[in-house]
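User: Okay, second chain of the day. Same drill as before: sequence in, C-alpha cells out.
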Amino acid sequence: MNCKNLPATLADLKKSGWRSRTVRDELRENLLRKIDNEEPLFEGIVGYEHTVLPQIENAILSGHNFILLGLRGQAKTRIIREMHGLLDEYMPIIEGTQLNEDPLNPISPKGRKIVEQMGDKTPIRWVHRDDRFNEKLATPDVSIADLIGDIDPIKAAREKLDISNEEVIHWGIIPRTNRGIFAINELPDLQPRIQVGLLNILEEADIQVRGFPLSVPLDMVLVFTANPEDYTNRGNIITPLKDRIDAQILTHYPRNLDQAIEITENEAEIKNDGIIVPEFYREIVEQIAFQARESEYVDQSSGVSARVSISAYESILANVERRARRLGEKDLYPRMCDLYAAVPAVCGKIELVYEGEQEGASVVAGNLISLAINSVFLRHFPQPTKDKRSEDQAPIDNPYEAVLDFFGTGRKLAISDDMSFEDYRTSIQEISGLERIVSEYFACDDPREMLLRMEMVLEGLVGNNIIARETHDSTVTYGDIFSDMLKGMEGLK
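Assistant: Same drill. C-alpha cells below.
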C-alpha cells in the first residue's frame, strides 16, 4: 500500500469508509487473519510453537497486556520487536499533533482544537506500523518525565505561553506511542516509584501530568520483559503493577538439538558460506550450551543464552577460514581442534559459581567442549572400555583395541591447528585401527568427514579416560593414559 494514494483530509477519510478501531481490536483481527491464512505469528522464532506462541496468541485475542519472563537469550526482546507486524500497515493521524491522534476521536486539547477549526479540511498524515512501536530499556535513571511527560518551561518561554497552558507539556515516550505498542525491557530494573506511574496506564488507560487537571486517554498495548534473576539481584516488580499486567508468559531454552541447530543457523553471521559442516559437528556445537545448562560450575540462575552457541559457531568457522587462508589452502572443512577456538566465545557468556571461578573460565569452557564432544561421540559409537583380549579368556569385543595397542607401546599422536591438510591426514592415518572403527559404524563418502570422525574417536576416548590428551598452545598430543600418570609420578620424586 502506498500512503500517497491514501486520504489526505478528514473529509476524504470519512468518504473512504475507514473506521476507528482500538489497538487491541486491530491486533486481534490481524492475528485471526494470520491464523486463517496459516501464516506464522513471528518470523525466525523456533521451539515455541506449542508453548510460548499459543500463550501470546491467547493474550492478544484477550486484549491483554503481558510480560515475557525468562532467562537471558530466550528471544524475549526479539518477540516484542516483532509485535508491530500485527498492526495495520498504515494508520491515519491528525497532522500537527504529537500523540498519533485518531482524526475521528482527538484526545488532546490541541487535536480537538485543530478539528474544530478546520473541520473536514483537517490534514491527515499516515503513519507506518514500524513507527507505532516504541521500546524503552529500564534503567535506574529512567524518570516519569521520560515515560509520561512533564512541563517544558523552555517551550513556554520560546512560544510565549502561560505555564498553565497544556501546550507547554513535553510528552514522554508512552503518550507518543498512543495507538501503538509500547515495550519496557527488563522491567524490574525500573525504580518502584517509576513503576507506580504505570499503574494508571494499565488500569485506566490514561495518563496524568503534574500541575494539570488533565486526563489524557491512551489507546495502546503494553508488553514487558523480565529475567527471574532480577527479582532478587537488581530489583522487583511492585505487587500492584504485577497485578495489573494481565498475563505472565514463561519463555524457555530450546528443548532439543534440532531446535537449537535451527536457531544457530538462522542467527549466526556466516562470513564464508563455502565451509561445509557435517550434521554431527553441529550437534557438538549445540551440546556446549546444553552441557553448560547442567554444569555445577555454571550459575544456573543466570541462564546460558542461545548466544553461546551462536558465538561459538561463528568462532569455529572463523578458525577454519583463518587456517585455510594462512596455509594457502582451499580446504574449508572443520577439525575437532577447531571446537576449542570457541573457548573465548563461551567464557564471555557464562556466569560461574564460586567453584567455577576457582577452576577458571577458560578451563570450565574447555571442559564443557570436551563434554559436548563426548556426548555426541556416545550417540554414534559404543561405550569405550579398557578391556583387552587375553590368552585365558574368551575374546572380548572391543572395537578400540587397536587404538589402545597403538598408544600402549608408548607412541603419541600430535595434531596441530596450523597443520596442512596433508600433514593432518598423514598423522591421523598413522593409527591403522582408527579408520576401521569409523567405517564399521558409518559410510563416509567424503574423506575429510572420515578424518573428522576418526579425530572424534580420539576425543571420545579421552572423554572416557581411555587415553590421555595434552594441549600446548595450538598442538594437541594424544598418548597412553598410564604412561602420562607414571610420568607425573616421576616428576613428584
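The chain has three domains: 3-140+177-250, 257-380, 401-492.

User: Thanks, on to the next one.
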